[in-house]
Amino acid sequence: MDRIQQMEVFIQVMESGSFTKAAEALNMPRSTISTVIQTLENRLGVQLLHRTTRQLTATQDGMRYLETANTLIQQFNATERMFQSEPHQIQGRLRIDMPSRIARRIVIPALPDFLSLYPQLNIELSMKDRMVDLIADGVDCVIRVGELSDSELICQKLGDLEVIYCASPEYLAAFGLPASMDALRHHHLIHYAIQMPAQPAKLTYQTAGESVSVPMQSRITVDNAEAYIASALAGMGIIEIPKYDVQHLLENNSLQEILPDCKPSALPLSFLYPSRKNLSLRVDVFRAWISQLLATTCFNRA
């Protein structure tokens, strides 16, 4: 393994916080990671890491080496990008994470067109409805729906998703069509929660510039989008969801929009990646492509 690769392994170990996570991120055996670090320390003649059974931290020499290695890797990548302007020169693995519904309904059907533009590029796509640790998990970029907490990630807003309330015709036939938000107190909400146990069910809407919450009854709580929509189709209650995600179900009358004059706030759709300085061409071309794709499929242009 050359010196550049050794630097990259060391940087990943420091970012991941363990040999095991670094091995997963780099798709290498853990034993290889350990050997690389030992070889690097032997060559430099210094100890770079303090190792215990519970913790892995950099020595003072390790911190100095990390700073220099980061600078050198950034300069090395920038130099290579100068000569990677043609599609056939964009190559390697691109690891992406995004919500499952966006991946399945929009991105995956369009991926053959993207890959035809960059024949030497390989995609590793994970589909989660919750934030991943880009550094520790070795993910290059993510797409996320909703407000984001502060972080060191670089965020590019792609647009705002129109959100609606809807339910199945069978549910509305049984419980009636609500004429106002207050009427929702007598209806059932299909509760969506990222973590269990869930907080009490409620719907929140905007009126006169203020946010108002309506407590709701709920007999089912789910933690992924597929189950959320399936529960609505089964007639178990009302859901609050981006309109693009159920447009086909609205068109064939499997679901029906309710309270169109009391819509929830729009949800931001964002593209996130770890570093502006070290943005690879792989991430850059995917960002441009996904921005255009989602703009033509997800956003309300009325």
Key attributes of the depicted protein:
14 strands; 41% helix; 302 residues; alpha/beta
Low-pLDDT residue spans:
none
Fraction of residues in H or I helices:
40-55%
Task: Label the structural class.
Answer: alpha/beta
Shape: elongated
Strand count, sense and barrel status of the largest sheet are: 5 strands, mixed
Instruction: Give the radius of gyration.
Output: 24 Å
Number of contiguous helices = 10
Strand order of the largest sheet: 4-3-5-14-6
Structure description:
With 302 residues, the chain is an alpha/beta fold. It contains ten helices and 14 strands. Strand 9 and strand 10 form a beta hairpin. The model has no long low-confidence stretch (mean pLDDT 85).
